[in-house]
Amino acid sequence: MSIRKYRAPLLFLLPAFALLAVVSIYPLAFGVYMAFTNISTTKGKWLSWDFVGLENFARIARELASPDSNLFRALVNTVVFTVVNVTLQVVTGVAYAFMLNARSLPLKRLWRTLMIVPWAVPGYISIMAWLFLYQYSYGYVNQLLLNLGLPRVDWLGQTLDTFWPWVSINLTNTWLAYPFIMTVTLAALQSVPPELVDAAKVDGASTWGVFRAVVFPHILPPLTVATVLTTITTFQQFGVVWLLTGGGPAIVVPGIGTLYTTELLMTYGFRTIWQYGDYGYGAAYSLLIAALVVPASIYAMKKMRVVGE
């Protein structure tokens, strides 16, 4: 009886299930299979490959154990970049949220619109605009520095500078991402009950006392969730780095090879698959990245559920 009852709905859902299997389940399953093979477009193993067991994972372990490898550098770069950039995003977003929440702010609607622009413009367009601004010879940023009597800065590593590319990447990603923290914090600030603030002031609490006892406890839970989500997103950052520097500048070190100064874990994986054609190793690498990201995402969703309740 129950099968007949749901037969028609299941038949209608069958095309969707078939499409899901083709575009999602099969590629995922084949990717897991590739992680245990030596399939490659550059080693004669594209149409005929061998099962290599855990060799790809062992290779990843060896590279992580070598401080001179690009993978080790990418891991260190990603951790440092994530810590620094998430801090910049949180500080910037919270500061702007408090500014927009101030009653004395003139033209508040205009400011809110301007502050949300980085989030509204498609990321690719924004990054390409920053790429033009950062150009060493004709970029507007360097032209402004020259007009102020200051020297040009190698924002993109075009002259093999290894410091300023990190500055440009962090500034650009902060500019693109801070509106999320700002929006969450602003919504939390506007949800603080005014009667609690008034009661604290009646009790003689100072501005700092009101913030510590009333405001901060209200904004902390949603800000924590937003920070966790921002950390996950920043850890997976690819577009900003790849479009601005391509993971470079690339420096050739005798006896070691080519090292990429601004390489992150995501750009390393992309380079491994699409430039080097090492699909087996790249698939194993992707599985390990997923093993890091998925638990963090589950934790973030649980925190969101708790905050929602």
Automatic annotation (TrEMBL):
Its main location: membrane. Residues 75-300 form the ABC transmembrane type-1 domain. GO terms for biological process: transmembrane transport. Coiled coil: none annotated. It is found in: Cell membrane. The chain crosses the membrane at residues 12-36, 74-98, 110-133, 210-232, 239-260, 280-301. Keywords: Cell membrane, Membrane, Transmembrane, Transmembrane helix, Transport. It is a multi-pass membrane protein. GO terms for cellular component: plasma membrane. The keyword Oxidoreductase does not apply. It holds the Pfam family BPD_transp_1. It comes from the Archaea. Belongs to the binding-protein-dependent transport system permease family. This is Sugar ABC transporter permease. It comes from Thermofilum pendens. The lineage of its organism: Archaea, Thermoproteota, Thermoprotei, Thermofilales, Thermofilaceae.
